[in-house]
Design a protein that fits this description.
The protein has 132 residues and is mainly beta. The chain has one helix spanning 2-13, and strands spanning 20-30, 38-46, 50-56, 62-74, 77-86, 93-103, 106-113, 123-131. An eight-stranded antiparallel β-barrel has the order 1-2-3-4-5-6-7-8.
Length: 132
């Protein structure tokens, strides 16, 4: 958690020649039972796609992450991928497909991560971002 807090402080203290998006993590859906579907947290995403934050993970443990989202515009939405490193998991690296839709000045982003490992679960996670 302290590493993610440090990354967040660096991002917030950096000269803001580019926009930031503050994101709030919300619910998840897991393809297998027994995982936590309530994943509150917060993070930041730069205009260049760098992301960092903290949340309560699928194992009900605090996680900190840092990564990058690369998206392209398709109509009113953006689609792409996210790759990140996160604490609190047996496999610290993950990748996900991303779909971001602007709604009333916010960005609603759906991340879908494939199952990792024999006992893993495909996961869909939703978060909402606001410009800062």
């Amino acid at each position: 958690m302290t590493r993610a807090a440090l990354v967040l402080c660096v991002l917030m203290a950096a000269p803001c020649a580019h926009a930031l998006e503050v994101v709030m993590h919300g619910a998840s859906y897991h393809s297998r039972p027994g995982y936590n579907n309530h994943n509150p947290g917060f993070g930041l995403i730069t205009a260049e796609g760098w992301a960092a934050g903290v949340y309560l993970n699928s194992y009900r443990r605090p996680s900190a992450y840092v990564g990058r989202i690369v998206e392209t515009t398709v109509g009113p939405a953006r689609v792409g991928v996210m790759g990140a490193l996160a604490t609190g998991y047996t496999v610290p690296a993950f990748g996900a497909l991303s779909l971001a839709v602007p709604i009333d000045g916010c960005t609603v982003r759906l991340l879908v991560a494939p199952k990792v490992g024999r006992n893993g679960s495909t996961t869909a996670h939703i978060m909402v971002g606001v410009p800062w």
